[in-house]
Amino acid sequence: METEIVETLLSRIASCLDDDPSKALSLLQSCEQQLVTNRFAKAFARDGRAIRVRVPAVDAALIDVSRALSLIHNSASAAQIRESVEHAMGELSPAAAH
């Protein structure tokens, strides 16, 4: 998966949490949608069949983004939301190196 789009969204979310929570919410929803779309990748089994496998880094980032969305809906502090966003970014960083 190309993680640049999601990483850019996560960076924008972190920067606008204090100033524009509604924009952060919209960006988080877009980010979540991107992660859901890329949660599985095509691979090949030993016998040559095409299969879909879960991408662990994307799955982990999706959990953090979903948590951030939940925190926003529960009116949590920007620091708590930012922590989840930063954790999602950290989950994707190793994936970008591959």
Write the layout of secondary structure elements.
Layout: H1 4-16, H2 21-37, E1 40-44, E2 50-54, H3 56-73, H4 78-96
Description of the molecule:
By secondary structure, the protein is mainly alpha-helical. The protein contains 4 helices and 2 strands, in the order H-H-E-E-H-H. A two-stranded antiparallel ribbon has the order 1-2. Helix 1 packs antiparallel against helix 2 and helix 3 runs antiparallel to helix 4. The longest helix is centred in the C-terminal third of the chain and has 19 residues.
The fraction of residues in strands falls at 5-15%
* Average pLDDT: 90
Radius of gyration: 15 Å
Tertiary shape: elongated
Low-confidence runs? none
Number of helices: 4
Can you write the helix and strand succession as a string? HHEEHH
State the share of residues found in helices, binned by percent.
55-70%
Question: Strand count, sense and closure of the main sheet?
Answer: 2 strands, antiparallel
Compute the number of strand runs. 2
The neighbouring-strand order within the major sheet is 1-2
Structural class: mainly alpha
Q: How many angstroms separate the termini?
A: 10 Å
Summarize the structure.
This protein is mainly α and 98 residues long. It has four helices and two strands, in the order ααββαα.
Descriptive labels:
single chain, 98 residues, mainly alpha, 10% strand
